[in-house]
Fold this protein.
Amino acid sequence: MDTQELHDRGLALRKRLFGAEAVDRRQKAFGSFGEPLQHIINAYAYGDIWQRPAVPLATKSLAMIAMMAAAGRPNELRVHLRGALNNGCKPEEIREILLLVALYCGIPLANEAHAAAVEVLGDMAE
Amino acid sequence: MDTQELHDRGLALRKRLFGAEAVDRRQKAFGSFGEPLQHIINAYAYGDIWQRPAVPLATKSLAMIAMMAAAGRPNELRVHLRGALNNGCKPEEIREILLLVALYCGIPLANEAHAAAVEVLGDMAE
Amino acid sequence: MDTQELHDRGLALRKRLFGAEAVDRRQKAFGSFGEPLQHIINAYAYGDIWQRPAVPLATKSLAMIAMMAAAGRPNELRVHLRGALNNGCKPEEIREILLLVALYCGIPLANEAHAAAVEVLGDMAE
Amino acid sequence: MDTQELHDRGLALRKRLFGAEAVDRRQKAFGSFGEPLQHIINAYAYGDIWQRPAVPLATKSLAMIAMMAAAGRPNELRVHLRGALNNGCKPEEIREILLLVALYCGIPLANEAHAAAVEVLGDMAE
Amino acid sequence: MDTQELHDRGLALRKRLFGAEAVDRRQKAFGSFGEPLQHIINAYAYGDIWQRPAVPLATKSLAMIAMMAAAGRPNELRVHLRGALNNGCKPEEIREILLLVALYCGIPLANEAHAAAVEVLGDMAE
Amino acid sequence: MDTQELHDRGLALRKRLFGAEAVDRRQKAFGSFGEPLQHIINAYAYGDIWQRPAVPLATKSLAMIAMMAAAGRPNELRVHLRGALNNGCKPEEIREILLLVALYCGIPLANEAHAAAVEVLGDMAE
């Protein structure tokens, strides 16, 4: 496949997952300096890996939440929490992943992830 | 609930997930020095968090795989790869999680996780 | 022991270590979504592990400072710096731990930990 | 060599790399509490390791950028991005290092490093 | 560009950097399960990012060494130490990067990286 | 103070803590390539930071154990477990630190640390 096609279908999926406006904002934030990184994200992450059909998007979102919480990356965690809600994940399901984080990665990373979740889920976290 | 009950139902689930012999071996490996840690694992991890019903065990296993790969913990990754197979996860599903690791945690952690997966999956990885 | 007892004695110790108001604020911050995590913190961390008598609370606080600085967790580091002062640790003792962090975990983590310490210790750091 | 000499030549190099005012500000930020850490930084980092001649300062700056991005330390990354510019590194060179970070440490750390780079490089990043 | 071209030129560069035999061995180690990961490595890492001309290969190798040492990934560190030698880096240059690791990431990671370097450099480390 | 004095008193303390033979073996393992790193360890770690009197050596050993377990550095953990025993720490005290690791850094790092402890403590762990 042509890498331009990879990029375009990746950007389309990315906008569907996280909202067109949010993706545009992130793409512009790093200007022309950031273009090669945006190409990696659009073409290789969302145009290749995220397109693979063996696992539904909701399961990928839960795995991303597990991974970003474990790695202590609250910014990306917030992005993927929004993606998880768009993919139909429920707050109760997200919480179960974050409780595994508490036991297997420690309470501080679970605290950080809960803070991100409460911020993103808002009223849904009640 | 009494913590002894928590411990007993946790140990039972742990043996169902990973095999009674493997769990016995791990419990004995650290002797009496390791008893309080085994209590944390049996009562708090498998007796409490893993018992919660909001997410099926197979999804928890995939989240554990994501987390252990992201944290660079190949020993626990191997344990939870075995648990994932027992919970009905397919090699193709596990691989999708490890490909997300490549993009979001870097190629070296994905290499380490693939090595663990190929070892555990054996012929299933063909 | 009943897990409710574990929770109650844990919450009592946690309030003694960090102040009742600060603990109440943290408990409320994550609402009902955060209740299972608060149970882990109160019952399993402060109701079980922190209650164990083999090491005095001041030594546990210094170990927590070492651990949170090494893991790059400045929020929890600040909490345990306050706990260390309540447990009778002196600023000079805390500083020695942070200097070990510089050599064994690198200057950037020692910088982050010093910033937290200067903020929490205030005039005591002069 | 006397450790005072080590300290003095280190502080001089540090000011040349990052600007005298910025270094003074950082030294004062942690007061007398921070003096032993400043001694480690001045005497051992900049008075010893950074003085060694086998590699030019620009290469050391690029290695520092790789290291601080990989370790998720954006504060020190910003400091060393400024040092890299003072040592004659070009924005295009810095970007190549950050693209390696994307592939080998994951997209989230590359995002964090790009944000720091765009902030420090300003108009140079256009 | 077509992704197959990206893959082919990437695999060619990878073999030039690390030796055809070593690359073949790594490709085969993970069988068909590992094919998508090998595609990421060949097409996206070595076919895209490593091909970019703004920085010479030797500088990229030193940055990789800094990054893999900082991230505690001794297997990939060994691979890139071999690549660095092929790209013309000298043992004295490599050592300077590892000494920065000692100060900025801590003595344990510098020890791990020195062990890898002594193993790969062999007689060149004398 | 002269850096040679720093080095000599550091090496003497290091041998007292970990045994002359073990230190000699480690010093020789990296040959002349490793001399600058050994200077950092002897002069700056053991000749400066470890000499500071505000905290007893046993407390420093417990903090090192906390730090090396949190950072996932089992080799250095084993070294400092031996140092802790030489400094008069009891197995029961060491275990309490490792149980804090379980709760605050996660079960996998606590498992790794327990394995190191059982190996070093041997019969003392019964």
Remarks:
- The interface with chain A takes residues 29-34, 36-37, 40-41, 45, 68, 71-73, 75-76 of chain C (CB under 8 Å).
- Helices of chain C lie at 3-18, 20-29, 35-46, 57-70, 74-86, 91-105, 107-121.
- The mean pLDDT of chain C is 96.
- Residues 63 and 116 of chain C are 16 Å apart (CA to CA).
